[in-house]
UniProtKB/TrEMBL annotation:
Pfam families tied to this protein: PhoU_div
Protein name (Swiss-Prot/TrEMBL): Pit accessory protein
Signal peptide range: none
Superkingdom of origin organism: Bacteria
């Protein structure tokens, strides 16, 4: 790691870790959604909204700290990008749950559980990686694995779209379900954006 002569604002590390931990909470709520009935899904949606609001608060706290700090642990644009991408993940997960409830979807298509499993694994890896920003150690495997998971998510997404357009669903149902699986795919993309930002930070700090 590059030697520094100036002190660094360390609270960013804790805030990034808290934001990532909140994403793990969101991914667990997605897992709960799979086995829930209609009433249970509405309750999960309420808890997901609360988690999304907590994520917004965490992001705003990072931005406030960024605007008020003279010294930062790494480049300001990277701090902004990392915080924004973490926030995007939570937004997409909350949107997916909300759409399931708003559209009153009874049965999610086979394959959605695989999408959510990928997101849950990516959430765990991201939460494990954030504390390592302090030292920049043991991060290479993290971004490699998240990129692999995103590729896996792409494959699952394509199979889901093929399934939705196989003629077994009516047009309105296809539109509803496609929007849900597309948002889950956007969440996977956002995890990759986080990993790519972490890689950029690590390269700059090496």
């Amino acid at each position: 790691m590059r030697f520094r002569l100036t002190p660094r604002e360390t609270s960013f590390y804790d805030m990034f870790a808290a934001s990532a931990d909140n994403i793990v909470t969101g991914s667990k709520l997605l897992m709960e959604l799979l086995g829930a009935d209609t009433a249970g899904r509405a309750e999960i949606a309420e808890r997901m909204r609360a988690a999304e609001h907590a994520g917004d608060d965490a992001t705003h706290a990072i931005f406030h700290q960024l605007n008020s700090s003279f010294i930062t642990p790494f480049d300001r644009e990277d701090i902004y990008s990392l915080a924004s991408s973490l926030d995007d993940i939570m937004d997409f997960m909350e949107e997916a749950v909300d759409l399931v409830v708003l559209y009153n979807v009874e049965d999610l298509p086979k394959g959605v559980e695989q999408q959510i499993e990928v997101l849950a694994r990516a959430a765990e890896l991201t939460a494990e990686a954030m504390p390592n920003l302090r030292t920049m150690d043991n991060l290479t495997e993290y971004w490699i694995e998240v990129n692999r998971l995103e590729n896996q998510a792409d494959q699952i997404h394509r199979k889901l779209l093929a399934h939705l357009f196989n003629g077994k669903y009516d047009a309105i149902e296809v539109l509803k379900l496609k929007q849900i699986v597309d948002v889950l795919e956007e969440a996977a993309d956002a995890f990759e954006h986080v990993a790519n930002t972490v890689e950029t930070i690590a390269v700059k700090e090496s």
